[in-house]
Amino acid sequence: MGWRFAVSTLGMPGAPLARSVRTAVAHGCEGLEIRAHPDEEVHCGMTSAAAARGLIGDAGLAIACLAGYAKVCAPGPDGPVIAELRALIDLAHELDASAVRVFPGGDGRPHDRIAAVLDDLRAAGTRLLVETHDSHPTGAAARRIVEPIGAPDAVAVLWDALHPWRHGESPIRTREVLGDYLGYFQLKDARAVDPTPLPPGDGEVPLGECAAVLRPWSGWVSLEWEKAWYPAVQPVGTALRAASRWLLTHRP
After folding, report:
1. Using one digit for the tens of pLDDT, what is the confidence trace for 107-124?
2. What's the chain's Rg over C-alpha atoms?
3. What's the distance, CA 197 to chain centroid?
4. pTM of the model
5. d(Cα 159, Cα 157) in Å, to the nearest integer?
6. Are 42 and 36 in contact (CB under 8 A)?
7. What is the pLDDT of residues 37-52, one digit of tens each?
8. Most buried residue among 6, 127, 134, 209 by CB atoms closer than 10 A?
9. To the nearest 10°, the Cα dihedral for 87, 160, 4, 117?
């Protein structure tokens, strides 16, 4: 299968889904990573999931990932976390999304929470992806969350290109420690001392090294352009053009 190219709607905050779809298609994307958030058209509890699924599918796109904000390691009781996970899994099923992204988000014990939704994941035909982020920014740390489940086909890791590198883990090491638990790759660039997003190739993240270790792997490569958090950065089209050049250079 090789790499499949997607873009996250985080780079188009507040945009109607139809506009995000047009942007993805115009830049040669095969998929859309959809931010599931109350501020956006797509969110848990929405009543138009079937229409959204049709809009995306009719454009020839797949939903590469539903980017949720549940925190599997959050402190506190398990119940609210499990409920949020189930809501995201239900939405992913309605949208026909192949994966759900979640965050670590603390030092709590995630394994019972994830195990509680394992049957839901399998029934929905979707995969839970824990991002290398916040409390668990490296591949090694993220693997410690998912490995005890022992089901990489259902629970794996989303490798955000920026965070492991900024925390001292090389791309070679990240790929090595993730092994079969690598489920998704987010293409990002920035400088070591400043996390402000830069178009791929303009920053210091060793994206060439990332490409080299990813070549034998098949899966989604998604541009995450964090314009929702950094509104002054350039429009997503600028980053997409740079991402397309990176893909043209490195895609197997």
Report:
1. 999 999 999 999 999 999
2. 17
3. 16
4. 0.98
5. 6
6. yes
7. 999 999 999 999 999 9
8. 6
9. -30
Tokens of 19: 């506009």
Under 8 Å CB-to-CB from 240, ≥6 apart: which residues? 7, 23, 27, 29, 223, 225
Q: Which residues contact 99 (CB under 8 A, 6 or more apart)?
A: 64, 65, 66, 92, 126, 127, 128, 129, 158, 183, 184, 220
Cβ atoms of 158 and 131 closer than 8 Å: yes
Strand partners, 131: 158
- The residue type found at 189 is D
Contact (CB, 8 A) for 162 and 190: yes
pLDDT at 190 (0 to 100): 98
CA-based torsion, 215, 250, 126, 177: positive or negative: positive
Query: In the CATH scheme, what is the code of domain 3-250?
Result: 3.20.20.150
Dist. CA 143–CA 148, nearest whole Å: 9
Q: Write the DSSP symbol of residue 7.
A: E
Domain segments of the chain as ranges: 3-250
Distance from C-alpha of 90 to C-alpha of 36, rounded to nearest angstrom? 12
Which residue matches tokens 């996250």? 8
